[in-house]
Design goal:
By secondary structure, the protein is an alpha+beta fold. It has helices at 41-49, 128-134, 240-253, 272-275, 293-296, 321-329, 379-384, 403-407, 426-438; strands at residues 3-4, 7-9, 51-62, 65-77, 83-86, 95-101, 107-116, 121-126, 154-159, 167-178, 185-186, 189-190, 197-200, 212-214, 220-228, 235-239, 259-260, 263-266, 283-288, 304-308, 311-312, 336-343, 346-353, 355-356, 361-367, 372-377, 393-398, 414-418, 421-422, 443-449, 452-458.
Length: 460
């Protein structure tokens, strides 16, 4: 996977019924067996039985052409309904096929229940009809509380590094609250804003992504996600507390809904004296998104947030920022907030109404007959590029010599309408496209190109 700054996502680039749990087979003792190393060897073996290999095929655009990409990672079965937790960079909505290899080496297809790029987590589910048809069973691993982890506690990373299935590496918790600025992305999607990470020296390599980080008693306390480029023994996992919150919403709604006010925070560090603040109070607003609720409420870069809804804010250090953002994110969309703010020598109360958090990367879709790859225009992207609104579909891929290319469509254009039908979502265009596929005919597209409005005709 692509490395940004010094971090890389540890994935492999190319490489119904309720089902009863399968009891692990007894393992002959050798110099005391696992019991010599683990207090709960049977529980640990059960966690091993829940680990799966994930093989994914997805269609990706490269310049003006499409190709089939194969990826491989790990996952862990977390329910007796066949739910599997993995990383979003392993299995995303771009996947056209997901195959799971169980601990008994049987292969079963799975589908994506939902994904959350903000935490780099995806939830899959086994095809239970095929599980029943083949007479298979599987084991689910239990979660443990990541909140109680302390430096020095032993943990094990399970997964399929570099295609090597059923691999176990051992280490300790190096830091249970490691912070990374949100400098990474998953296919352009933002990630890493709302949680700190578990740092461990257990080896996590490409292919380990999505596998569990477990305690000696077989409890899943993290999902292996990242490693540090060019260094040994620096690996990172999403805490189980974060994962369980995400799973609950993905099971219920197929997505995770969060609130946002449009601020980018920064730690105060040793600036309390400069700002005239008591120690351990306040969070610095580093920037305010144009057109966001925070901007509309009058918040500015350089303001210090002292409290949210009367609850004091402590943002002196970087690792304290994700929990503060999480407090805002878990509020209902459209909920009013009261921020106690310090600006210079003045303190004020600023009311802000939350809006739904959106990625700057809108939903993507392909229209192969036209040779087009499109993306919905999100509010953050519209604000960033100073569009009048968030309507239209952004052209992000164009196949050479196909109808759209021949008509004069360019990458970066925004398609505003098709046959005079306004477009705001990919579904708005599907009807026109399906009619074209059934009986090819001319289609009139209205485009925004910079400050100009351009009209082109797509011909069969």
């Amino acid at each position: 996977m692509r490395a940004l700054i010094l971090l890389m996502l540890a994935s492999a680039g190319l490489m119904g019924p309720v089902v009863a749990a399968e009891e692990p087979e007894a393992v002959p003792a050798l110099n005391g067996g696992l019991s010599a190393y683990l207090e709960h060897p049977e529980a640990f073996r059960r966690a091993q039985q829940a680990v799966v290999r994930i093989d994914v095929r997805e269609v990706a655009w490269e310049g003006d052409s499409q190709r089939l990409v194969r990826g491989q990672g790990s996952g862990v079965i977390i329910s007796d309904q066949g739910h599997i937790l993995t990383n979003a960079h392993v299995a995303s909505p771009d996947a056209v096929e997901i195959l799971i290899t169980l601990a008994n080496l049987e292969r079963v297809p799975a589908h994506l229940v939902g994904w959350d790029h903000w935490t780099d987590l995806s939830l899959l589910q086994l095809d239970l009809d095929e599980v029943e048809e083949k007479g298979l069973s599987f084991t689910a691993a239990p979660f443990g509380p990541s909140e109680v982890l302390q430096p020095g506690m032993p943990v094990y990373a399970l997964g399929t590094p570099n295609g090597l299935t059923r691999t176990v590496t051992r280490g300790i918790i190096s830091n249970p609250q490691r912070y990374f600025a949100a400098t990474n992305s998953i296919r352009g999607y933002e990630t890493g804003y709302f949680n700190n990470w578990l740092q461990t020296d257990a080896a996590i390599n490409p292919g380990n992504s999505g596998g569990p980080l477990v305690t000696p008693d077989g409890k899943v306390v993290g999902i292996n996600t990242r490693s540090y480029l060019g260094a040994n023994n620096l690996s990172f996992a999403v805490p189980s507390a974060t994962a369980q919150e995400v799973i609950e919403q993905l099971k219920d709604k197929g997505e995770v809904v969060r609130s946002n006010i449009g601020i980018r925070p920064a730690p105060l560090r040793d600036l309390e004296a400069f700002f005239g603040l008591d120690a351990n109070v306040g969070m610095l607003i580093d920037s305010v998104d144009s057109g966001s609720p925070a901007s509309e409420a009058g918040l500015r870069a350089g303001d210090i947030v002292l409290a949210i809804d009367g609850e004091p804010v402590d943002g002196r250090f970087a690792e304290q920022l994700p929990p503060i953002l999480h407090r805002i994110a878990e509020k209902p969309v459209g909920a009013p907030l009261e921020l106690q703010v310090r600006r210079g020598d003045e303190e004020m109360t600023v009311p802000v109404t939350t809006e739904r958090l959106e990625s700057r990367v809108g939903e993507r879709g392909t229209f192969p007959e036209w040779g087009l790859s499109l993306q919905e225009v999100s509010k953050p992207l519209a604000r960033e590029r100073r569009y009048e609104n968030d309507e239209g579909l952004l052209v992000i891929g164009l196949q050479n010599a196909f109808p759209a290319d021949r008509a004069g469509v360019r990458e970066g254009d925004i398609i505003l309408s098709a046959n005079r039908k306004p477009l705001a979502t990919l579904e708005d265009l599907r009807g026109v496209y399906e009619t074209y596929r059934e009986a090819p005919q001319r289609v009139l597209l209205e485009l925004r190109r910079g400050r100009e409005i351009v009209v082109v005709v797509v011909k069969p």
